[in-house]
Design a protein that fits this description.
The chain is α/β, with parallel strands linked by helices and 252 residues long. The protein contains eleven helices and eleven strands. The chain is globular.
Length: 252
């Protein structure tokens, strides 16, 4: 149950369409459901406005399916699953209306069709090899309700590719810059725009990139103001944060 559903329930009580006992029963439902292998936070939507997101990596297809089934049973919809294998996707596809995105390994169950997308989040990646992280960020922000523009393969090795999109970059409310190798893209973008930049280092690169640590340290040491950094390959975290910034009142 999210904040909007809670308000609708209270309005129903006010209008006599639901009894107080029925409302209390829904509100006093245990804040989490214990499946033994997982404890599902059923009040996440009420606290944060967004239901719990399922991290699929390390979970079996059957475990993911059971979590989804429980969430649907408890009235949740619009369920996001990240780091999901194709094998798990085949199992979960039997549960309800389901979409699976190969590049980002992201799944969505019962996506809300009437969601209004607002603001302007721009996802820019240095290379095509970074797309799996960039797409996770883009799909997350879109899923949450942000209007997203993608600019891919625009790294500093060919700076003209980035500058060709300067109008899009300077009109964004928040930018997610995704890069591996030396991670210079975030600093360059940060020096061009006035909006917040969320930097995402990826594990793409040769040996001395140390699985993304080189890009992470470069981004943490950025001389551009307004650049924040999430963990290596954390497209979900970047997309979530970008949506939160994009949704803030007064952000232009």
């Amino acid at each position: 149950m999210d904040k909007m559903e809670t308000l609708q329930m209270l309005e129903a009580v006010k209008n006599g369409e639901m009894t107080t006992s029925e409302a209390v029963k829904k509100l006093t439902m245990a804040p989490f459901e214990d499946l033994g292998f997982a404890k599902i936070d059923m009040h996440r939507g009420l606290r944060q406005g967004i239901p719990e997101v399922i991290f699929g990596q390390g979970k079996t297809p059957e475990q993911i399916e059971e979590i989804v089934q429980l969430m649907l049973k408890r009235g949740e919809s619009d369920i996001l699953i990240t780091r999901m294998s194709k094998e798990a996707a085949l199992v979960v596809a039997k549960v309800g209306e389901f979409e699976y995105f190969d590049i980002s390994r992201t799944g969505i169950v019962n996506r809300k069709k009437d969601k209004v997308h607002t603001g302007s989040v721009v996802i820019v990646s240095a290379g095509t090899s970074d797309m799996y992280v960039a797409e996770e960020a883009a799909l997350t922000a879109e899923f949450l309700g942000s209007d997203v523009t993608r600019i891919y393969d625009a790294g500093v090795a060919g700076l003209h590719r980035l500058l060709a999109h300067i109008d899009v970059l300077t009109s964004a409310r928040v930018i997610v810059a995704v890069a591996g190798m030396e991670g210079a893209l975030a600093s360059v973008v940060g020096g061009l725009v006035s909006c917040p930049v969320v930097a995402v280092p990826t594990s793409v690169g040769y040996g001395a990139s140390f699985g993304g640590i080189a890009a992470l340290l470069s981004m943490l040491n950025s001389c551009s103001s307004g650049v924040s950094v999430v963990n290596i390959d954390n497209g979900f975290g970047a997309g979530y944060l970008a949506h939160m910034i994009n949704s803030m009142e007064g952000v232009e």
